[in-house]
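User: Sorry, what's this?
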Amino acid sequence: MIALNASGSIAKLTGTPNEHVRLAIKFIALRQATLAARHSPSPDALDAIFELNNVRDSKEEKEQDKSTAEKILAALPASHKDVLKQEKLADLLGIIYTNGHHIHGHGIGLFPVASMIEHSCAPNSAYEVVNDKLTVTALLKIAKGEGISLCYIRPYQPRQERIAELKNRFHFDCTCVRCSVDMFNRDLCRAFRCKKCDDGIVTPLGFGNDLSDWKCDKCDQTPAAEVFQEMIAEETTLKLLDTLDVPVDTLLESSTLHQSHYVLYRSLEHRVKVLARLRPNIGQTWLLILLDSAKRVLPEYHPDKAVFYDMLGQVRKLLSDLKGAKEVPLLPPAVGKSSSVMIPFLSLGFQ
């Protein structure tokens, strides 16, 4: 379809993610086919998507979706222009923004039943998409009557960033166990090396706005005021850099940041996907750091850990370390011992 070729320029002009534009165009194509009685599901089944929630209710968000819809309609062939009116298409874009599930390597899809699952930064389930089916797998034992939860965002980021992202994107205040601010809930991914003891890790309570919020997990001491200022200054500077510009080697050797700090984690994660094959020795070293950090910060059972274990096995195979590759578990230890269940959802997804 001509409009698919124009999706990139539409996305750039309007600020709407390209994958959202493409999914909206593919929805129009599918609905046009159903109206011509050449395709299933039925038009009524497709239109059930419009019953999903659309959280984009601010004036700016509505104007953006309206502008994107207008440009999509202008790029459509004549046979597709009347499938959805501009207002309906703008609503569809908001629904995609609110409910779209990411499909690794293939953009996003709409899965109406799965869209009703609640969010938690410490979820009890995870999802994967194969072809046109989304499958939800329990990561923990889920009691009768207990809600099923997924994580809508990347969980390895500071509490303040998670709360802000969920508020901005989905318009709700997260009160999950990782976001609730109390005296026992430390933000483990804002981690710094303690200068008062060996191997100690300094992390904050709450949002870490005050010096008194920060303590070492080993010596239980608060950093000196000048050290605290150095920590925050370095963190502020580094998080403004592009992921590829973060000097990982230098930071791992001499930074005030601990290796599990979220800025280092993001940069390592990005780099290791490239270096795992090009430079497997470095890839293995950094994968082990990522795994240690993930074990420390993420919930006990989390898909990211499984991904890192899988990559580690592949790297060791490249290094001809077949014994080491066989010793790498496919999932974090003990996941297979939980009473996990799989819940399939028929999808209305698009790749």
